[in-house]
């Protein structure tokens, strides 16, 4: 049987859950909540968003198995990983990378638009 187009998304989501919860446990244990936005967005843009995309693409395979969805996957994941690395730097005071963080967020924004196009055009 052909693999569901949701599988890769759901597997990536679980990795982000581990990372996000790891930040949460670190914050709780250390009492240092500086990286709270990193924790929140690994969990929400990583775990929650990717799991939801995966479930939607599993349920509507026509929306998930096309070139747009592949581009969306890589833009979202690269944007998120690079973006969270840059956000850590910004929160630690390295404001010079803020423009790059802006670019990373626009990369994720582009992935979100591709998702919207796929959902609007291919789910009916
Ligand atoms: C063992 C798991 C987790 C631990 C120990 C944990 C711990 C924390 C801590 C210490 C904060 C900082 C609170 C503050 O400074 O006010 C926080 C904030 C937050 N966490 Fe978690 N967290 C966990 C799992 C999750 C998960 C699974 C999600 C989402 C799916 C999540 C979403 C958030 C959000 C959105 C915030 C920011 C809340 C706000 O804006 O005040 N967390 N978490
Ligand atoms: C590219 C996409 C996104 C960008 C650029 C972005 C940006 C931001 C910014 C600038 C803040 C304020 C942080 C602060 O005050 O320190 C924030 C907070 C927050 N965002 Fe997002 N966000 C994005 C996507 C999302 C998504 C998809 C969710 C939920 C599914 C979400 C949930 C939250 C929550 C709960 C907070 C409050 C907790 C915190 O301060 O970290 N965000 N976001």
TrEMBL record:
The chain crosses the membrane at residues 6-29, 41-60, 72-91, 100-120. Keywords: Membrane, Transmembrane, Transmembrane helix. It comes from the Bacteria. Coiled coil: none annotated. This is Cytochrome-c oxidase. It comes from Nitrospira japonica. The lineage of its organism: Bacteria, Pseudomonadati, Nitrospirota, Nitrospiria, Nitrospirales.
């Amino acid at each position: 049987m052909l693999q569901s187009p949701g599988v890769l998304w759901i597997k990536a989501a679980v990795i982000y859950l581990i990372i996000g919860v790891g930040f949460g446990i670190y914050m709780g244990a250390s009492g240092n909540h500086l990286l709270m936005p990193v924790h929140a967005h690994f969990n929400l843009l990583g775990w929650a968003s990717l799991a939801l995309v995966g479930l939607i693409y599993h349920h509507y395979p026509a929306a998930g198995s096309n070139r747009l969805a592949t581009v969306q996957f890589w833009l979202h994941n690269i944007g998120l990983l690079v973006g969270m690395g840059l956000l850590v730097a910004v929160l630690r005071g390295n404001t010079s990378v803020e423009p790059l963080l802006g670019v990373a967020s626009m990369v994720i924004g582009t992935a979100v638009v591709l998702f919207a196009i796929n959902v609007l055009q291919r789910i009916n």
